Task: inverse folding
């Protein structure tokens, strides 16, 4: 673990050094961020002074633009739920879906980071077909990723004492904050056709990987 921290620290130092060329700095920062997410580190782990884990609930808006944005914002929401966050789809803007997320800042960061990776994966692997076929594929892709993350989360809970209570507490706090300060929400349900396209997307989504520590940053000592 120490070697991993030193590697990340060196990458951050290179990214922030005044003489580092911009492309090299961006590459170093991207790699450092990827390693931090993979091994469950946060900015607090690399600050010069020790800091207390912040478990307060924050609110963030995420905008999803481009094609198939409705299905992609559903993917963001599904990933957020697996990371003890909650939220809702706000009023859409021009060609943009707006998702409002509630949760710890580190949990939302983990969800947004994984969404960026999953969104890129989906765009790269989306097969050819008409719009209806591709929408069904995205739905299956989302379901497959939900299954993959659910397995990873359950493994983390099984291997980490007290993790189940902590994650449940995080979600409860996020829900309470949304109920207290969010708008009145109306549930909507949509049927999902499970044809060839859906099954294809679901199979791809099941192959999505997630570092188990993305669920567990700062697990100990949070309930109280």
Result:
């Amino acid at each position: 673990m120490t070697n991993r921290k030193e590697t990340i620290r060196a990458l951050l130092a290179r990214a922030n050094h005044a003489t580092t060329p911009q492309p090299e700095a961006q590459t170093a920062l991207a790699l450092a961020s990827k390693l931090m997410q993979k091994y469950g580190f946060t900015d607090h782990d690399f600050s010069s002074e020790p800091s207390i884990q912040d478990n307060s609930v924050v609110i963030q808006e995420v905008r999803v633009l481009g094609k198939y944005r409705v299905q992609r914002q559903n993917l963001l929401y599904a990933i957020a739920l697996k990371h003890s966050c909650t939220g809702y789809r706000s009023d859409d803007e021009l060609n943009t879906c707006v998702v409002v997320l509630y949760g710890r800042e580190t949990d939302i960061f983990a969800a947004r980071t994984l969404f960026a990776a999953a969104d890129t994966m989906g765009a790269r692997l989306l097969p050819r077909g008409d719009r209806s076929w591709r929408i069904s594929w995205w739905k299956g892709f989302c379901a497959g990723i939900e299954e993959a993350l659910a397995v990873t989360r359950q493994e983390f809970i099984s291997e980490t004492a007290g993790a189940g209570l902590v994650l449940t507490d995080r979600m409860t706090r996020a829900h309470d904050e949304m109920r207290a300060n969010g708008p009145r929400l109306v549930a909507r349900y949509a049927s999902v056709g499970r044809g060839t396209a859906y099954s294809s997307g679901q199979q791809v989504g099941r192959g999505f990987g997630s570092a188990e520590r993305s669920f567990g940053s700062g697990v100990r000592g949070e309930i109280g």
